[in-house]
Amino acid sequence: MKLRILTFNIQHCKSxxxxxxxxxxxxxxxxxxxxxxPDIVGLNEVRGEGPNPAYTAQxxxxxxxxxxxxxxxxxxxxxxxxxxxxxxxxxxxxxxxEILLIPDPExxxxxxxxxxxxxxxxxxxxGAGLTMLVTHFGLTDVEAENAAATVCTAIDNAKxxxxxxxxxxxxxxxxxxxPIRDRMLDTEDVFSHKGSxxxxxxxxxEKIDYIFTTPSIxxxxxxxxxxxxxxxxxxxxxxxxPD
Length: 243
Known about the structure:
- The protein is α+β, with helices and mostly antiparallel strands.
- About 15% of the residues lie in helices and about 35% in strands.
- It contains four helices and twelve strands.
- The strands form two sheets. The chain has a six-stranded mixed β-sheet, with helices on one face. Strands 5-6-7-8-10-9 form a six-stranded mixed β-sheet.
- Helix 1 packs across helix 2.
- The protein starts with a strand and ends with a strand.
């Protein structure tokens, strides 16, 4: 069964070129997602509904514009304004959903930015079954190590093939990805332009966004389109999962 997969850090639906953090453009992001016609979408930096009027149910709004099912996976509440985290949009209904919190570092260095993170997990009845994981790694080494450990536990516990997407905030040669690479394949191996970069979208100088699959899933195509919508470029792949 072929599936079209998209991962996209949407920076709370802020139009990157507009340069005004208070302006949220749901139509722009819904139209961007729609042009890929994805079966499943992993989203990072998604706001949920909260006391601050700028915090609305972004996953629900995008899903309704696209006609998709959605699962919002908040990791934290931003300064009391509202929840914030990852989301999964899908053309297909979810069998189960779960929020896997990534442990915060026990010791934090002065002057470094820390943020509680999570993994959105959804099981779908597609082919022989599919587990979708969407994550957003922290910026420090210990946060990334905790995130990788959380992801690997989820992969090891999965009863079906797994697709893992997200903003990992590390370069492809970072050893923190090694435990994931021991378990999964990087769709970059079949990029139409291997070595394409994802951040920042206007003048990218690094690749920090990924789609990984367990070995039973075959990647047929993957690319990072030259699009300036969010501060990250989206990453798109076509995969075949076992029947």
